[in-house]
Amino acid sequence: MSDPGPRLVLASGSPRRRQLLETIGLRFAAIPPDIDETPRPDEDPQGYVERLAREKAGAVTAATDDVVVAADTTVAFAGQILGKPIDAADARRMLLLLSDQTHDVHTGVAVRTAGRTTTRVVTTFVTMVTISEADIAWYVGTGEPLDKAGAYALQGAGGLLVRSVEGSSSNVVGLPLAELAELLASAGWPLDHLRNAPPG
Fold first, then answer.
1. Cα angle 171, 21, 167; round to 5
2. 8-194: what fold?
């Protein structure tokens, strides 16, 4: 009998990250980590997402030969972290801030295997259209912005608000696939090996 290989574990409860891994043919177990995601005082956006990705990877229980993948994504504008809005008014504030501007989307990715964790931060630059008050009211009314960093979803109705994307588009959704594949390969687990991993 051939060795089925290690189990792949996604340390996330995000349906978007699950869909992205499924898109590239991976089978995995999804285990949502329980960590405090509050930014530390004076923590920069890139350091913030890298720290959270590392903490998420370390927070899930997995066998020593499992491969654990974790990620954290945030939107940043002028050095300010824009997490998930606390309510509709906060979503409106963020959208007004991003209107007709270019902002950064940072994702920290962590891969934990054999007791060692490696990380990488990927940045994408997103330029928004000029967003009218009417469009903001409509979009906030859909409810979509309320659980999204920066108050929009590129892969959803929020794509209407995006003029251009420079860099990884899957990064904006929550998991930069090309860079994840490179990180896994450097850890000794290229995708063709992990596609044979047993399901969770």
1. 20
2. Maf protein (3.90.950)
